[in-house]
């Protein structure tokens, strides 16, 4: 059974024993978003899913940025006893990239799920993007008022009801202040000119129908990171840990076993 460790500066959920695998959630998600992965992979690995600073049970930080989140993740890896396999989804993938660049000794391998090397590869204006996502909060809405339509909007058409419910439950753990901080920080992400410095064995995964960070973004990651491999999950949207957990778990297991065999 998973156990929750509500420490400061970072809280997490973990299951299993063995080499550490650190799971970094996306914007509007929390540690519970990786429950399917913890359940599937805890037979061989110590699977740890964090609450990013300002999210879930992790205290907020004054000056949040993706770099600061990466430093916190590296601190958690040290707390866990050494290098870890790092798995990041969406914004968590952006944080994972920063961990690999800022703290390469903390990363045994990298898995980047439904993410991007830079914000706005499709020409999205950062100010307009921020304004659109902050508008409901500015108008007094609670996260529960918009969580389900927002999450359905980034999933593939006709998502499984249980997958939607799990994603909503994870999003409901996000404090409004933490969501605001991460929305403000995310558009600064751009590591395209540094991808070639990543030495960790890297798997890139994307949902075939992901419109938030589409396959072209995943291809840019594969092409920029030396030796990276790309896998596309058929029929999945932007939330593959919820939409296609079995397919993702199989890819992660093979990736982790390959790295450890090498």
Task: Describe what this molecule looks like in 3D.
With 262 residues, the chain is of the alpha/beta class. The protein has a single domain (3-261), classed as Rossmann fold (3-Layer(aba) Sandwich), CATH 3.40.50. The chain has ten helices and eight strands. The protein has an eight-stranded mixed beta sheet with strand order 1-2-4-3-5-6-7-8, with helices on both faces. The longest helix has 17 residues, at 245-261. 47% of the residues are buried.
Molecular shape = globular
Mean pLDDT: 97
Helix count?
Answer: 10
- Describe the sheet with the most strands: 8 strands, mixed
Percent helix, as a range, is 40-55%
Say what the CATH topology is.
Answer: Rossmann fold
Radius of gyration: 17 Å
End-to-end C-alpha gap: 30 Å
Low-confidence stretches: none
Proportion in β-strands: 15-25%
The count of strands amounts to 8
Category by helix and strand content: alpha/beta
Order of SSEs, N→C?
EEEHEHEHEHHHHEHEHH
CATH superfamily placement: Alpha/Beta hydrolase fold, catalytic domain
CATH architectural designation: 3-Layer(aba) Sandwich
Number of domains: 1
At the first level of CATH, the class is: Alpha Beta
| Spatial arrangement of strands, main beta sheet | 1-2-4-3-5-6-7-8
Layout of helices and strands:
Elements: E1 3-5, E2 11-15, E3 20-24, H1 35-41, E4 46-51, H2 66-80, E5 84-89, H3 91-102, E6 107-113, H4 126-138, H5 143-154, H6 161-171, H7 176-185, E7 202-207, H8 215-224, E8 229-233, H9 240-243, H10 245-261
Parallel strand pairs: 3-4, 3-5, 5-6, 6-7, 7-8
Antiparallel strand pairs: 1-2, 2-4
């Amino acid at each position: 059974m998973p156990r929750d460790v509500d420490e400061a500066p970072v809280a997490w959920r973990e299951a299993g024993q063995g080499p550490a695998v650190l799971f970094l959630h996306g914007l509007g998600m929390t540690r519970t978003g990786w429950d399917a992965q913890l359940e599937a992979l805890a037979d061989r690995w110590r699977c740890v899913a964090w609450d990013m600073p300002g999210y879930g049970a992790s205290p907020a930080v004054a000056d949040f940025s993706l770099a600061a989140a990466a430093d916190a993740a590296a601190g958690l890896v040290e707390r866990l006893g050494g290098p870890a396999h790092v798995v990041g989804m969406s914004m968590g993938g952006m944080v994972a990239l920063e961990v690999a660049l800022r703290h390469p000794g903390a990363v045994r391998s990298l898995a980047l799920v439904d993410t991007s090397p830079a914000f706005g590869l499709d020409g999205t204006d950062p100010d307009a993007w921020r304004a659109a996502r902050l508008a409901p909060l500015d108008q007094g809405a609670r996260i529960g008022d918009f969580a389900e339509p927002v999450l359905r909007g980034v999933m593939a058409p006709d998502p499984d009801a249980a997958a939607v419910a799990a994603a909503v439950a994870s999003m409901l753990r996000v404090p409004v202040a933490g969501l605001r901080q991460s929305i403000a920080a995310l558009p600064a992400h751009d590591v395209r000119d540094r991808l070639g410095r990543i030495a960790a064995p890297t798997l890139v995964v994307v949902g075939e129908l992901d419109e938030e960070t589409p396959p072209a973004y995943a291809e840019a990651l594969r092409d920029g990171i030396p030796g990276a491999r790309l896998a596309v999950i058929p029929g999945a949207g932007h939330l593959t840990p919820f939409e296609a957990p079995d397919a993702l778990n199989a890819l992660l297991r093979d990736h982790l076993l390959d790295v450890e065999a090498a």
